[in-house]
Amino acid sequence: MDLVRLIYTSTITEQFEVEDIARILKVARVKNKALNVTGLLSFNRQFFLQCLEGTRQEVNQIYHKIATDPRHKKPEIISYEVISYKEFDSWNMGYLQNTASLRELFYQHTKSINFDPYNMNGERALALLMDIRDEIKRAETQ
Fold first, then answer.
1. What CATH number did the domain enclosing 71 receive?
2. Cβ neighbours of residue 65 under 8 Å, at least 6 residues apart?
3. What residue numbers bound the domain in which 123 lies?
4. What 3-state class would DSSP assign to 23?
5. What single DSSP character describes residue 37?
6. Does the model's pTM come out above 0.70?
7. How far is residue 12's CA from residue 70's CA, in Å, rounded to a whole number?
8. pLDDT in tens, the chain (142 residues)
9. Residues 6+ apart with CB under 8 A from 127
10. Domains contained in the chain, number
């Protein structure tokens, strides 16, 4: 069965509440584990940038739920590709809070203080998400 990687972005809606990020992560971690889907979520209080990895059927199913979630608007797929291995296989859903280190990574990859993932291509988005993954791993070992 082919594995795929989907990277998308979306914007939060007026219905989004601060507590929603914890709710999203809790549900995603349980459901993704059951479906053997891995990935990483990045959020800067305006935009979501997320990677999902798994079988095409499972990843598509999750993305369609996200795209119709009232907390998201303007969902846009940045990249969708068949992969031979998962980059985010350690997490059912990794997450790095909106910290100075995350803002620095955003700046390094976009050269702008105003992070806007809609302007990223798939290669740059994946590179950013992999750097976020590495930052989470560094923080976990400290």
1. 3.30.70.100
2. none
3. 3-141
4. helix
5. -
6. yes
7. 9
8. 789 999 999 998 988 887 888 888 888 889 989 999 999 988 888 898 999 999 999 999 999 999 999 989 999 999 999 999 999 988 777 676 667 787 888 888 888 778 889 999 999 999 999 998 988 888 778 7
9. 109
10. 1
